[in-house]
TrEMBL record:
Pfam families: CitMHS
Listed GO CC annotations: plasma membrane
Transmembrane domains' residue ranges: 6-22, 34-62, 74-92, 113-131, 137-153, 160-180, 200-222, 243-261, 276-294, 301-319, 339-356, 387-409, 421-440
Main subcellular localisation: membrane
Keyword NAD annotated: no
PROSITE patterns reported in the protein's UniProt record: NA_SULFATE
Classification lineage: Bacteria, Pseudomonadati, Pseudomonadota, Gammaproteobacteria, Oceanospirillales
Gene Ontology molecular functions: succinate transmembrane transporter activity
Record keywords: Membrane, Transmembrane, Transmembrane helix, Transport
Coiled-coil segments on the chain, per record: none
Name recorded for this polypeptide: Putative transport protein
Length: 441
Protein backbone atom coordinates (compact mmCIF):
# COMPACT_ATOMS: atom_id res chain seq x y z
CA UNK A 1 0.00 0.00 0.00
CA UNK A 2 1.44 3.40 -0.96
CA UNK A 3 2.27 6.04 1.64
CA UNK A 4 -0.25 8.76 0.62
CA UNK A 5 -3.08 6.24 0.98
CA UNK A 6 -1.81 5.07 4.38
CA UNK A 7 -1.60 8.68 5.58
CA UNK A 8 -5.34 8.94 4.87
CA UNK A 9 -6.39 5.48 6.09
CA UNK A 10 -4.43 5.21 9.37
CA UNK A 11 -6.03 8.28 11.05
CA UNK A 12 -9.51 7.03 10.08
CA UNK A 13 -8.83 3.53 11.42
CA UNK A 14 -7.27 4.95 14.59
CA UNK A 15 -10.30 7.16 15.24
CA UNK A 16 -12.77 4.33 14.62
CA UNK A 17 -10.86 2.02 16.97
CA UNK A 18 -10.70 4.67 19.70
CA UNK A 19 -14.40 5.44 19.32
CA UNK A 20 -15.38 1.77 19.47
CA UNK A 21 -13.45 1.11 22.68
CA UNK A 22 -14.61 4.02 24.85
CA UNK A 23 -17.53 6.47 24.91
CA UNK A 24 -15.94 9.36 26.82
CA UNK A 25 -14.62 12.04 24.47
CA UNK A 26 -11.52 12.84 26.53
CA UNK A 27 -10.36 9.21 26.66
CA UNK A 28 -11.22 8.83 22.95
CA UNK A 29 -8.88 11.71 22.16
CA UNK A 30 -6.03 10.14 24.14
CA UNK A 31 -6.50 6.72 22.57
CA UNK A 32 -6.76 8.23 19.08
CA UNK A 33 -3.47 10.11 19.45
CA UNK A 34 -1.79 7.00 20.87
CA UNK A 35 -3.07 4.70 18.10
CA UNK A 36 -2.21 7.15 15.33
CA UNK A 37 1.30 7.80 16.65
CA UNK A 38 1.92 4.07 17.13
CA UNK A 39 0.68 3.21 13.63
CA UNK A 40 2.81 5.95 12.05
CA UNK A 41 5.88 4.90 14.05
CA UNK A 42 5.54 1.22 13.21
CA UNK A 43 4.65 1.73 9.54
CA UNK A 44 7.19 4.57 9.08
CA UNK A 45 4.71 6.14 6.68
CA UNK A 46 6.31 9.48 7.59
CA UNK A 47 9.63 10.11 9.33
CA UNK A 48 9.39 9.09 12.99
CA UNK A 49 10.54 12.52 14.18
CA UNK A 50 7.78 14.21 12.15
CA UNK A 51 5.30 11.85 13.83
CA UNK A 52 6.71 13.07 17.15
CA UNK A 53 5.92 16.67 16.11
CA UNK A 54 2.39 15.61 15.14
CA UNK A 55 1.60 14.58 18.74
CA UNK A 56 1.60 18.08 20.33
CA UNK A 57 -0.23 19.48 17.29
CA UNK A 58 -3.06 16.95 17.74
CA UNK A 59 -3.03 17.40 21.53
CA UNK A 60 -3.70 21.12 21.07
CA UNK A 61 -6.33 20.65 18.34
CA UNK A 62 -8.24 18.13 20.48
CA UNK A 63 -8.02 20.30 23.59
CA UNK A 64 -5.87 17.97 25.67
CA UNK A 65 -3.19 20.64 26.21
CA UNK A 66 -2.79 24.31 25.46
CA UNK A 67 0.15 25.19 23.20
CA UNK A 68 2.50 26.08 26.07
CA UNK A 69 1.85 22.83 27.95
CA UNK A 70 2.23 20.72 24.81
CA UNK A 71 5.52 22.37 23.84
CA UNK A 72 6.92 22.11 27.38
CA UNK A 73 7.63 18.41 26.80
CA UNK A 74 10.29 19.38 24.25
CA UNK A 75 12.14 21.28 27.00
CA UNK A 76 12.13 18.35 29.42
CA UNK A 77 15.46 17.99 31.30
CA UNK A 78 16.14 14.61 29.71
CA UNK A 79 16.35 16.35 26.30
CA UNK A 80 19.32 18.33 27.59
CA UNK A 81 20.84 15.21 29.11
CA UNK A 82 20.72 13.70 25.60
CA UNK A 83 22.32 16.84 24.22
CA UNK A 84 25.18 16.56 26.70
CA UNK A 85 25.76 12.96 25.68
CA UNK A 86 25.99 13.98 22.03
CA UNK A 87 28.45 16.75 22.93
CA UNK A 88 30.73 14.38 24.85
CA UNK A 89 30.69 11.91 21.96
CA UNK A 90 31.45 14.70 19.47
CA UNK A 91 34.39 15.98 21.54
CA UNK A 92 35.93 12.53 21.94
CA UNK A 93 35.50 11.87 18.23
CA UNK A 94 36.98 15.24 17.23
CA UNK A 95 40.21 14.42 19.07
CA UNK A 96 40.33 10.69 18.11
CA UNK A 97 39.93 9.81 21.79
CA UNK A 98 37.03 7.46 21.07
CA UNK A 99 39.30 5.25 18.97
CA UNK A 100 42.10 5.49 21.54
CA UNK A 101 39.71 4.35 24.31
CA UNK A 102 38.47 1.53 22.09
CA UNK A 103 42.04 0.32 21.64
CA UNK A 104 42.47 0.24 25.43
CA UNK A 105 39.52 -2.17 25.57
CA UNK A 106 41.10 -4.35 22.88
CA UNK A 107 44.41 -4.36 24.69
CA UNK A 108 42.82 -5.35 28.01
CA UNK A 109 40.91 -8.14 26.25
CA UNK A 110 44.20 -9.38 24.76
CA UNK A 111 42.84 -9.50 21.22
CA UNK A 112 39.72 -11.54 22.08
CA UNK A 113 36.79 -9.98 20.22
CA UNK A 114 34.14 -11.78 22.28
CA UNK A 115 35.79 -10.60 25.50
CA UNK A 116 35.93 -7.03 24.17
CA UNK A 117 32.15 -7.05 23.67
CA UNK A 118 31.43 -8.73 27.00
CA UNK A 119 33.60 -6.19 28.82
CA UNK A 120 31.72 -3.31 27.20
CA UNK A 121 28.32 -4.84 27.91
CA UNK A 122 29.19 -5.70 31.52
CA UNK A 123 30.60 -2.23 32.22
CA UNK A 124 27.45 -0.69 30.70
CA UNK A 125 25.11 -2.90 32.77
CA UNK A 126 27.07 -2.31 35.98
CA UNK A 127 27.15 1.47 35.56
CA UNK A 128 23.41 1.50 34.82
CA UNK A 129 22.78 -0.12 38.18
CA UNK A 130 23.97 3.07 39.87
CA UNK A 131 23.56 5.96 37.44
CA UNK A 132 21.13 7.03 34.73
CA UNK A 133 21.05 4.58 31.82
CA UNK A 134 20.97 7.64 29.57
CA UNK A 135 24.22 8.93 31.04
CA UNK A 136 25.75 5.45 30.85
CA UNK A 137 25.00 5.01 27.15
CA UNK A 138 26.16 8.57 26.49
CA UNK A 139 29.53 7.61 28.02
CA UNK A 140 29.82 4.22 26.33
CA UNK A 141 28.64 5.16 22.82
CA UNK A 142 31.77 7.06 21.73
CA UNK A 143 33.94 4.20 22.99
CA UNK A 144 31.85 1.71 21.02
CA UNK A 145 31.96 3.85 17.88
CA UNK A 146 35.72 4.12 18.21
CA UNK A 147 35.93 0.35 18.43
CA UNK A 148 33.70 -0.05 15.38
CA UNK A 149 35.46 2.60 13.30
CA UNK A 150 37.96 0.03 12.02
CA UNK A 151 35.10 -1.91 10.36
CA UNK A 152 33.22 -1.25 7.14
CA UNK A 153 29.68 -0.03 7.83
CA UNK A 154 28.35 -1.86 4.76
CA UNK A 155 30.24 -5.14 5.11
CA UNK A 156 30.04 -5.40 8.90
CA UNK A 157 26.65 -3.79 9.52
CA UNK A 158 25.53 -6.72 11.68
CA UNK A 159 28.54 -6.11 13.96
CA UNK A 160 27.62 -2.43 14.32
CA UNK A 161 24.05 -3.40 15.22
CA UNK A 162 25.23 -6.11 17.64
CA UNK A 163 27.53 -3.78 19.59
CA UNK A 164 25.24 -0.75 19.64
CA UNK A 165 22.04 -2.61 20.51
CA UNK A 166 24.02 -4.64 23.04
CA UNK A 167 25.04 -1.43 24.81
CA UNK A 168 21.52 0.03 24.76
CA UNK A 169 19.89 -3.17 25.99
CA UNK A 170 22.60 -3.82 28.61
CA UNK A 171 21.92 -0.36 30.06
CA UNK A 172 18.16 -0.96 30.25
CA UNK A 173 18.52 -4.44 31.77
CA UNK A 174 21.29 -3.39 34.16
CA UNK A 175 19.11 -0.58 35.49
CA UNK A 176 16.52 -3.10 36.70
CA UNK A 177 18.84 -4.48 39.39
CA UNK A 178 18.81 -1.65 41.94
CA UNK A 179 16.34 0.79 43.42
CA UNK A 180 18.28 3.73 41.94
CA UNK A 181 18.91 2.09 38.56
CA UNK A 182 15.69 3.22 36.91
CA UNK A 183 12.86 5.62 37.90
CA UNK A 184 10.13 2.90 37.75
CA UNK A 185 12.07 0.93 40.38
CA UNK A 186 12.02 3.90 42.75
CA UNK A 187 8.31 4.47 42.11
CA UNK A 188 7.45 0.86 42.96
CA UNK A 189 9.84 0.82 45.91
CA UNK A 190 8.28 3.95 47.38
CA UNK A 191 4.73 2.67 46.86
CA UNK A 192 5.54 -0.67 48.49
CA UNK A 193 7.95 0.61 51.15
CA UNK A 194 10.82 -1.57 49.91
CA UNK A 195 14.39 -1.07 51.08
CA UNK A 196 17.39 -1.04 48.73
CA UNK A 197 18.22 -4.67 49.52
CA UNK A 198 14.59 -5.77 49.25
CA UNK A 199 14.37 -4.33 45.73
CA UNK A 200 17.68 -5.98 44.77
CA UNK A 201 16.18 -9.32 45.78
CA UNK A 202 13.57 -8.69 43.06
CA UNK A 203 15.53 -6.84 40.40
CA UNK A 204 18.99 -8.43 40.49
CA UNK A 205 17.77 -11.95 39.54
CA UNK A 206 16.00 -10.44 36.51
CA UNK A 207 19.21 -8.72 35.42
CA UNK A 208 21.39 -11.79 36.01
CA UNK A 209 19.08 -14.06 34.00
CA UNK A 210 18.03 -11.68 31.23
CA UNK A 211 21.41 -10.09 30.48
CA UNK A 212 23.23 -13.23 29.20
CA UNK A 213 20.10 -14.36 27.34
CA UNK A 214 20.01 -11.01 25.54
CA UNK A 215 23.69 -11.27 24.59
CA UNK A 216 23.27 -14.81 23.25
CA UNK A 217 20.15 -13.87 21.28
CA UNK A 218 21.86 -10.89 19.64
CA UNK A 219 24.91 -13.01 18.82
CA UNK A 220 22.90 -15.89 17.31
CA UNK A 221 20.58 -13.69 15.25
CA UNK A 222 23.05 -11.06 14.04
CA UNK A 223 26.17 -13.27 13.67
CA UNK A 224 28.61 -10.37 14.24
CA UNK A 225 32.21 -10.48 13.09
CA UNK A 226 33.59 -10.10 16.62
CA UNK A 227 37.09 -11.17 15.60
CA UNK A 228 37.42 -7.99 13.56
CA UNK A 229 36.70 -5.91 16.66
CA UNK A 230 39.97 -7.02 18.23
CA UNK A 231 41.98 -6.29 15.09
CA UNK A 232 41.72 -2.58 14.19
CA UNK A 233 43.00 -1.79 10.72
CA UNK A 234 45.25 0.97 11.98
CA UNK A 235 46.77 1.85 15.33
CA UNK A 236 45.87 5.27 16.67
CA UNK A 237 48.90 7.03 18.10
CA UNK A 238 47.93 10.36 19.58
CA UNK A 239 49.87 13.24 21.04
CA UNK A 240 48.52 14.43 24.35
CA UNK A 241 47.85 18.04 23.45
CA UNK A 242 46.29 20.45 25.93
CA UNK A 243 42.86 20.11 24.27
CA UNK A 244 42.96 16.31 24.42
CA UNK A 245 43.93 16.35 28.09
CA UNK A 246 41.20 18.88 28.93
CA UNK A 247 38.62 16.85 26.95
CA UNK A 248 39.46 13.73 28.97
CA UNK A 249 39.32 15.70 32.24
CA UNK A 250 35.88 17.12 31.37
CA UNK A 251 34.66 13.64 30.33
CA UNK A 252 35.86 12.12 33.63
CA UNK A 253 34.45 14.95 35.75
CA UNK A 254 31.09 14.64 33.98
CA UNK A 255 31.02 10.85 34.43
CA UNK A 256 31.97 11.15 38.12
CA UNK A 257 29.33 13.83 38.73
CA UNK A 258 26.69 11.59 37.14
CA UNK A 259 27.81 8.60 39.23
CA UNK A 260 28.03 10.57 42.49
CA UNK A 261 24.80 12.48 41.97
CA UNK A 262 23.15 11.43 45.23
CA UNK A 263 26.14 12.72 47.23
CA UNK A 264 26.69 15.91 45.23
CA UNK A 265 23.08 17.12 44.89
CA UNK A 266 22.83 18.38 48.51
CA UNK A 267 26.25 20.05 48.29
CA UNK A 268 25.41 21.91 45.07
CA UNK A 269 21.83 22.63 46.12
CA UNK A 270 20.11 20.99 43.15
CA UNK A 271 17.17 18.73 43.96
CA UNK A 272 15.74 18.06 40.50
CA UNK A 273 17.15 17.62 36.98
CA UNK A 274 20.70 17.30 38.30
CA UNK A 275 21.87 15.04 35.44
CA UNK A 276 20.65 17.55 32.84
CA UNK A 277 22.43 20.40 34.68
CA UNK A 278 25.67 18.39 34.61
CA UNK A 279 25.20 17.74 30.88
CA UNK A 280 24.68 21.43 30.08
CA UNK A 281 27.71 22.34 32.19
CA UNK A 282 29.79 19.83 30.21
CA UNK A 283 28.67 21.35 26.89
CA UNK A 284 29.67 24.84 28.04
CA UNK A 285 33.04 23.69 29.41
CA UNK A 286 33.88 21.80 26.21
CA UNK A 287 33.17 24.90 24.15
CA UNK A 288 34.81 27.61 26.27
CA UNK A 289 38.00 25.52 26.62
CA UNK A 290 38.20 25.14 22.84
CA UNK A 291 37.73 21.36 22.98
CA UNK A 292 34.53 21.40 20.92
CA UNK A 293 33.58 23.96 18.30
CA UNK A 294 29.93 24.89 18.00
CA UNK A 295 29.99 23.86 14.33
CA UNK A 296 31.11 20.33 15.27
CA UNK A 297 28.57 20.15 18.10
CA UNK A 298 25.81 21.32 15.76
CA UNK A 299 26.78 18.78 13.11
CA UNK A 300 27.22 15.79 15.45
CA UNK A 301 24.06 16.34 17.52
CA UNK A 302 21.17 14.19 16.31
CA UNK A 303 18.45 16.82 16.49
CA UNK A 304 15.87 14.41 15.08
CA UNK A 305 16.35 12.18 18.14
CA UNK A 306 15.72 15.12 20.48
CA UNK A 307 12.47 15.83 18.62
CA UNK A 308 11.57 12.15 18.78
CA UNK A 309 11.97 11.98 22.52
CA UNK A 310 10.09 15.25 23.05
CA UNK A 311 7.17 13.75 21.13
CA UNK A 312 7.32 10.59 23.21
CA UNK A 313 7.18 12.62 26.41
CA UNK A 314 4.23 14.58 25.04
CA UNK A 315 2.38 11.35 24.19
CA UNK A 316 2.97 10.09 27.72
CA UNK A 317 1.51 13.33 29.04
CA UNK A 318 -1.51 12.96 26.73
CA UNK A 319 -2.23 9.43 28.00
CA UNK A 320 -1.98 10.57 31.61
CA UNK A 321 -3.99 13.77 31.15
CA UNK A 322 -6.87 12.00 29.37
CA UNK A 323 -6.91 9.00 31.72
CA UNK A 324 -6.31 6.65 28.79
CA UNK A 325 -3.52 4.76 30.61
CA UNK A 326 -5.71 3.92 33.59
CA UNK A 327 -8.64 3.04 31.33
CA UNK A 328 -6.51 0.60 29.33
CA UNK A 329 -5.07 -0.97 32.49
CA UNK A 330 -8.54 -1.62 33.93
CA UNK A 331 -9.81 -2.87 30.57
CA UNK A 332 -6.95 -5.36 30.26
CA UNK A 333 -7.25 -6.47 33.88
CA UNK A 334 -10.98 -7.21 33.58
CA UNK A 335 -10.49 -9.01 30.26
CA UNK A 336 -7.78 -11.28 31.68
CA UNK A 337 -9.37 -11.95 35.06
CA UNK A 338 -10.54 -15.48 34.16
CA UNK A 339 -7.21 -16.60 32.68
CA UNK A 340 -4.80 -19.01 34.42
CA UNK A 341 -2.60 -16.93 36.74
CA UNK A 342 0.72 -17.25 34.90
CA UNK A 343 -0.85 -16.67 31.49
CA UNK A 344 -2.58 -13.58 32.88
CA UNK A 345 0.71 -12.27 34.28
CA UNK A 346 2.48 -12.76 30.95
CA UNK A 347 -0.34 -10.90 29.19
CA UNK A 348 -0.17 -8.04 31.72
CA UNK A 349 3.60 -7.90 31.32
CA UNK A 350 3.18 -7.72 27.54
CA UNK A 351 0.70 -4.88 27.96
CA UNK A 352 3.11 -2.85 30.11
CA UNK A 353 6.07 -3.51 27.79
CA UNK A 354 4.24 -2.49 24.63
CA UNK A 355 2.69 0.56 26.32
CA UNK A 356 6.22 1.61 27.32
CA UNK A 357 7.22 1.48 23.65
CA UNK A 358 5.17 4.60 23.00
CA UNK A 359 5.23 6.40 26.35
CA UNK A 360 7.63 7.34 29.13
CA UNK A 361 8.38 4.39 31.41
CA UNK A 362 8.52 6.76 34.38
CA UNK A 363 5.08 8.23 33.69
CA UNK A 364 3.67 4.79 32.92
CA UNK A 365 5.03 3.33 36.16
CA UNK A 366 3.76 6.31 38.15
CA UNK A 367 0.25 5.60 36.87
CA UNK A 368 0.28 1.80 36.63
CA UNK A 369 1.99 0.91 39.93
CA UNK A 370 -0.80 2.32 42.13
CA UNK A 371 -3.41 1.07 39.66
CA UNK A 372 -2.15 -2.51 39.82
CA UNK A 373 -1.68 -2.37 43.60
CA UNK A 374 -5.36 -1.44 43.79
CA UNK A 375 -6.68 -4.17 41.49
CA UNK A 376 -4.21 -6.96 42.37
CA UNK A 377 -6.18 -8.35 45.31
CA UNK A 378 -9.35 -8.55 43.20
CA UNK A 379 -7.29 -10.53 40.69
CA UNK A 380 -5.91 -12.82 43.41
CA UNK A 381 -2.35 -11.49 43.11
CA UNK A 382 0.23 -10.19 45.58
CA UNK A 383 0.34 -6.35 45.50
CA UNK A 384 4.13 -6.44 45.98
CA UNK A 385 4.69 -8.86 43.12
CA UNK A 386 2.23 -7.04 40.83
CA UNK A 387 3.74 -3.60 41.38
CA UNK A 388 7.28 -4.97 41.05
CA UNK A 389 6.37 -6.70 37.79
CA UNK A 390 4.97 -3.44 36.41
CA UNK A 391 8.16 -1.55 37.32
CA UNK A 392 10.47 -4.19 35.84
CA UNK A 393 8.40 -4.59 32.66
CA UNK A 394 8.45 -0.81 32.19
CA UNK A 395 12.23 -1.04 31.66
CA UNK A 396 11.94 -3.78 29.03
CA UNK A 397 10.88 -1.88 25.90
CA UNK A 398 13.40 -2.75 23.19
CA UNK A 399 11.57 -2.14 19.89
CA UNK A 400 11.30 1.58 19.16
CA UNK A 401 13.82 4.44 19.39
CA UNK A 402 11.22 6.49 21.26
CA UNK A 403 10.73 3.77 23.90
CA UNK A 404 13.81 4.44 26.05
CA UNK A 405 16.72 6.92 26.09
CA UNK A 406 19.30 4.14 25.38
CA UNK A 407 17.32 3.07 22.30
CA UNK A 408 17.10 6.66 21.09
CA UNK A 409 20.81 7.35 21.61
CA UNK A 410 22.06 4.34 19.63
CA UNK A 411 19.44 4.98 16.93
CA UNK A 412 20.78 8.53 16.76
CA UNK A 413 24.24 7.19 15.89
CA UNK A 414 22.86 6.45 12.41
CA UNK A 415 24.16 2.87 12.34
CA UNK A 416 21.01 1.12 13.59
CA UNK A 417 17.82 1.41 11.55
CA UNK A 418 14.38 1.41 13.13
CA UNK A 419 13.49 -1.81 11.29
CA UNK A 420 16.56 -3.56 12.75
CA UNK A 421 15.64 -2.35 16.23
CA UNK A 422 12.04 -3.50 15.79
CA UNK A 423 13.07 -6.97 14.60
CA UNK A 424 15.44 -7.61 17.52
CA UNK A 425 13.34 -5.71 20.03
CA UNK A 426 10.15 -7.62 19.30
CA UNK A 427 11.80 -10.94 20.17
CA UNK A 428 13.29 -9.46 23.35
CA UNK A 429 9.94 -7.94 24.33
CA UNK A 430 8.28 -11.36 24.10
CA UNK A 431 11.15 -12.97 26.02
CA UNK A 432 10.92 -10.30 28.72
CA UNK A 433 7.15 -10.71 29.00
CA UNK A 434 7.67 -14.39 29.80
CA UNK A 435 10.76 -14.07 32.00
CA UNK A 436 9.69 -11.16 34.20
CA UNK A 437 6.57 -12.81 35.70
CA UNK A 438 8.39 -16.14 36.10
CA UNK A 439 11.24 -14.52 38.06
CA UNK A 440 9.28 -11.89 40.01
CA UNK A 441 6.49 -14.24 41.06
Amino acid sequence: MNKPLLIIILPIVSWLLASSVVDENVKQDGLFIMLLAASFWFSQVIHISITALLIPVLAVILGVFDVKSAMAHFAHPIIFLFMGGFALAAALKQHDLDQWLAQRFVKQARGNGVLVCLMMFLVTAFLSMWISNTATVAMMLPIALGLLSALSVQRDNSTYVFVLLGIAYSASIGGIATLVGSPPNAIAGAALGLSFSEWMAIGLPVTLVFLPLMWVLLFVVLKPNVKALAQPHETISIQWTRQRVVTVIIFLITACMWMLGSELKPLIGIEQSYDAWVALSAIILLHVTGCLSFETFEKQTQWSVLLLFGGGLCLSGVLTETGSNEFLANLIASALNDMPTMLMLIALSLFIIFMTEISSNTALAALMVPTFIGISEAMGLSPTASASMVAVAASCAFMLPVATPPNAIVYGSGYVSQSQMIQMGFVLNILAAILVPLIVF
